[in-house]
Design goal:
With 414 residues, the chain is an alpha/beta fold. The chain folds into 2 domains: 271 residues, TIM Barrel, CATH 3.20.20.70; 71 residues, Arc Repressor Mutant, subunit A, CATH 1.10.10. Helix content is 38%, strand content 19%. It contains 16 helices and 14 strands. Helix 3 packs parallel to helix 4, helix 4 runs parallel beside helix 5 and helix 8 runs parallel beside helix 10. The longest helix is centred in the middle third of the chain and has 17 residues. 45% of the residues are buried. Belongs to the anaerobic coproporphyrinogen-III oxidase family. HemW subfamily. This is Heme chaperone HemW. One of its GO terms (molecular function) is metal ion binding. InterPro entries: Aldolase_TIM, Coproporphyrinogen-III_oxidase, Elp3/MiaA/NifB-like_rSAM, HemW-like, rSAM, rSAM_sf.
């Protein structure tokens, strides 16, 4: 089944210790930004916690007095200064993309989000055509705040709609009213945003086919140029998982999720959208999320904020999770990095196959070893790979292949 690419999971992996000053191996600095360079900025604050959410986020009650939202921008700017020292004489040639995620970034004042973007520009320089995205909840933006963000240089906004059905929103513990996401999308276009995305979640217990159809209709009518649609993933430790364990809600059905995905493909294709990644559709090539493409094609990015992940020159690291600990480390002049790993060639190859195969551009067959090419031949015979692209030397998933993407990946790897 098409799955969610989780950017900010609640549980961080193990790894080797990050140096106190955050220094990177010389080998990692040699070609910084050669394949593109982006900045991810994590804002960990939420007004309330959604029942399905396992991301590194905190409500005011969960933080107590331990972290000050008002000083958060200054804390992130301190990490940005540390990042500039780490890269030193080998800065990226430019910042191609910026993505501000969360949490709910737009709980910060729009002026703070503008100041953070200015800090990135002053530190490394934004490319003239840089894509600058912020995530937002529909109820956390106004026409005025959107205009401020657009004037500050934000070019793209991604709104968490999830569903148009009141019952589905209630099960997910979403607080915006049905219809507000589409309104916010129109307000963003009126404010001058170049690109607007709406996020959907499908397969929620109790969601009817007509509920999802109404969500798709509302997305198309909102006039957005990008749609992300993900199957509901039930993460351990969430309120939704607890409700399912108690038998209050049934677990998601793979068959239902497959039906919803096919419905999304049919409705979006008819409305002029094309898939470019298993869970993402855009009206044009220009509307594709360049920041996510940077992830999916193995480029470099620096992650700012608690729990944020970074990748530079084959070294991946992640920051401490809690905003208080994050701020304390930076106040002491130390890296907030918790741990890191240096990807082996085998690990880098595995990730490259896994991510590129999800793209509509597919994977060059030359990237596979003999066993992988044999697996690709089997996938072709099973109707999982495009018979037109295959003779041209590329493994591209068919619609049925998208439904079974994880299984195809397993067949292409040792």
């Amino acid at each position: 089944m098409p799955g969610t690419l989780v950017a900010m999971p609640g549980v961080l992996p193990d790894g080797e210790t990050v140096p106190v000053d955050g220094a990177l191996p010389t080998t990692a600095l040699r070609e910084v930004g050669a394949r593109g360079f982006g900045v991810y900025l994590h804002v960990p604050f939420c007004a309330s916690r959604c029942g399905y959410c396992d991301f590194n986020t905190y409500t005011a009650a969960e933080l107590g007095g331990g972290a000050d939202r008002g000083s958060y921008a200054d804390t992130v700017l301190a990490e940005l200064a540390l990042a500039a020292r780490v890269l030193g004489d080998t800065p990226p040639p430019r910042v191609d993309t910026v993505f501000v995620g969360g949490g709910t970034p737009t709980l910060l004042p729009a002026d703070d989000l503008a100041r953070l973007l200015d800090g990135i520009d002053r530190t490394w320089g934004l490319a003239a055509d840089a894509e600058v995205t912020t995530e937002a909840n529909p109820e956390s933006v106004t026409p005025e705040s959107l205009k401020t963000l657009r004037a500050a240089g934000y070019t793209r906004i991604s709104l968490g709609m999830q569903s148009a059905a009141p019952g589905v929103l209630a099960i997910l513990d979403r607080t915006h009213r049905p219809g507000r996401a589409a309104e916010a999308a129109r307000e963003a276009r009126d404010a001058g945003f170049d690109h607007v995305n709406l996020d959907l979640i499908y397969g929620t217990p109790g969601e009817r086919p007509e509920d999802f159809a109404a969500s798709l209709d509302q997305v198309v009518a909102a006039g957005v140029d990008h749609v992300s649609a993900y199957a509901l993933i039930v993460e351990d430790g969430t309120r939704l998982a607890a409700r399912m364990r108690r038998g209050e809600l049934p677990y998601p059905s793979d068959d239902v999720a497959a039906d919803r995905y096919l419905a999304a493909e049919a409705a979006l294709d008819a409305a002029g959208f094309s898939w470019y990644e298993v869970s993402n559709w855009a009206r044009s090539e220009a509307a594709r999320c360049r920041h996510n493409l940077l992830y999916w094609t193995g480029a470099d990015w620096w992650g700012l904020g608690p729990g944020a992940h970074s990748h530079v020159g084959g070294v991946r690291w992640w920051n401490v999770k809690h905003p208080t600990t994050y701020a304390q480390r930076l106040a002491a002049g130390c890296s907030p990095g918790l741990a890191r790993e240096v990807l082996t060639p085998a690990e880098a190859h595995m990730e490259d196959v896994m991510l590129r195969l999800r793209l509509a551009s597919g994977l060059p067959l030359t990237a596979l070893d003999d066993a992988g090419r044999a697996g690709a031949a089997r996938a072709l015979a099973d109707g999982l790979l495009d018979p037109v692209a295959y003779p041209q030397g590329r493994a591209v998933l068919t619609l049925r292949g998208r439904l079974l993407a994880d299984a195809v990946v397993r067949d292409l790897l040792p």
